[in-house]
Amino acid sequence: MPDKPRSRLDWSKSRVSAAPEPCVICGKPALMRSPDRDVPCHKTCAEQWLGDHDR
Q1: What is the DSSP string of 32-51?
Q2: I need a surface site. Which of 5, 14, 15, 51 has the fewest CB within 10 A?
Q3: pTM
Q4: How far is CA 39 from CA 24, 25, 44, 55, in A?
């Protein structure tokens, strides 16, 4: 079975932190903050998580 296409998120309304904080998914330093929940998160981590948890 082929891999399903990865989800693409619109982060045009996201913001950048002044200092890196741990990504809520991978734990590595992230400058970006989720536009939905305003938590530190890499866009690629969020897209991968969404693809893995898509119903």
Answers
A1: EE-TTT--B--HHHHHHHHH
A2: 5
A3: 0.78
A4: 7, 10, 14, 23
